[in-house]
Amino acid sequence: MGDKVLHYLNESPTVFFILRKIDGHWELEYVTSNVKNLYGYSAEDFLSKKVKHENFIFPEDLHQYRLEVRQISKIIKDKYTYKPYRILRDNKIVWINHILKIIYDKNGKVSHYYGYLNDITESIKNKNDLEQYLSIINNNVLLSITNKEGNIIDVSDAFCKLTNFSKNELIGKKHNIFRHPSIKDDFFKELWSTILKGYIWKGEHLNIKKDGSEIWVENTITPNFDENKNIVGFTSLYNDITDKKKIAQISITDFLTSLYNRRHFNAIFELELKRAKRDNKNFVLMILDIDFFKQYNDTYGHDKGDEVLKNISLALKDTLKRASDYIFRLGGEEFAIITSDIQYIGLVRLCNRLLKSVSDLKIEHRSSSINDFVSISIGAKIIKSNSAFSETKIFKLADNALYEAKELGRNKAVIKE
């Protein structure tokens, strides 16, 4: 080798050595002086056999190393790379990348081995750190990745655990496998419109697990781009907010009937009225009252009265089929229903179904002066999208309609346009 080459080898971080067969044994013929940086011993120490390479190999890696040494003599190729192994230097572990270049003579027999040793401790550490980091993400972060068409191409184990689906069950599927029937099409149209433009979408929505149970998630969807800034897919990060939603649900739920309470009525009233005006749709507020309920409690007792409230609540709720229908218990025997995008004739039919749902319960009411069974009265007010009425005014108009229904004999509905 030329002096320049030897100088370069000695100054490089790679330890270079040559093995040659002497008297049937492979002996170290040459090693660069930088071997001292790796092992703490000089080239002379190795060449004089004061120390040997195997003396430094980590005990748990020595068996594998010796197996590979024996395999080398049986292979027919010009290079062999050992599986990375550890050496001990000053009681510290150093990871080694070991490559052999196999030199053949003119007869095709191995004449020399050129060896290259590199300290890869830092890269192994970085790799282990990365693997540990990825493992933490996989086990703890709720994550899914899709292609541009929305087909799932990867999910974290944490996400699988949350949804009760296996990874194999999800790969290739779309996220509508989790879709809750209460979520409207408009919700997903807005979501896709946002992410296909390259924007990040954030929101909360209700999902269904494999076993049919419900889960609320906070979702952030980020578009993934290629080097040409074309969208190639999407990454979704989730946060399980089911417990948070349950607590919030308790705060807006009437304890006895499980309907929404007066507090939530006030919030939904404002939101739905604004939405109906924005979408140029009719808004409807209905106030309902159980006929002669005080007399019922006086006759049958408050425990029976509570049962009536629960049974009527369930009957009314089951009658309302649309996602835009909301029912509330305002207090005592008074209820409210908010709906929209319904015309007068449709509202008449809905009121009749609500009246019938209660009468069909056939709950005896000896103290009613109009019926042998429990009944309800309904006052409804239709608000056009261009109306300037306040919420207070609308409530008053619906309540007046309820009063009129009672004046007309109860067990009926009065609708005001």
What descriptors fit this protein?
14 helices; 16 strands; 6-stranded antiparallel β-sheet
Architecture blueprint of SSEs:
Layout: H1 3-11, E1 15-22, E2 25-31, H2 35-39, H3 43-47, H4 59-72, E3 79-81, E4 85-89, E5 92-104, E6 110-119, H5 121-140, E7 142-147, E8 152-155, H6 157-163, H7 167-170, H8 185-195, E9 201-208, E10 214-225, E11 231-240, H9 242-251, H10 262-278, E12 283-290, H11 293-300, H12 302-319, E13 326-331, E14 334-340, H13 344-359, E15 376-383, H14 391-407, E16 413-416
Parallel strand pairs: 15-16
Antiparallel strand pairs: 1-2, 1-6, 3-5, 4-5, 5-6, 7-8, 7-11, 9-10, 10-11, 12-14, 12-15, 13-14
Helix pairs in contact: 11-12, 12-13
Brief sketch in words of this structure:
The chain is α+β, with helices and mostly antiparallel strands. The chain contains 14 helices and 16 strands.
| Total DSSP helices | 14
Strand content: 25-35%
Number of strands: 16
CA-CA gap between termini: 103 Å
Q: Structural class given helices, strands, pairing?
A: alpha+beta
Q: From the structure provided, what is the oligomeric state, counting identical versus distinct chains?
A: single chain
Tell me the major beta sheet.
6 strands, antiparallel
Runs in which pLDDT lies below 50 for 5 or more consecutive residues are: none
| Topology order in helix (H) and strand (E) letters | HEEHHHEEEEHEEHHHEEEHHEHHEEHEHE
Arithmetic mean pLDDT: 92
Shape label: rod-shaped
Q: Nearest-angstrom radius of gyration? A: 39 Å
Approximately how much helix is present in the residues?
A: 25-40%
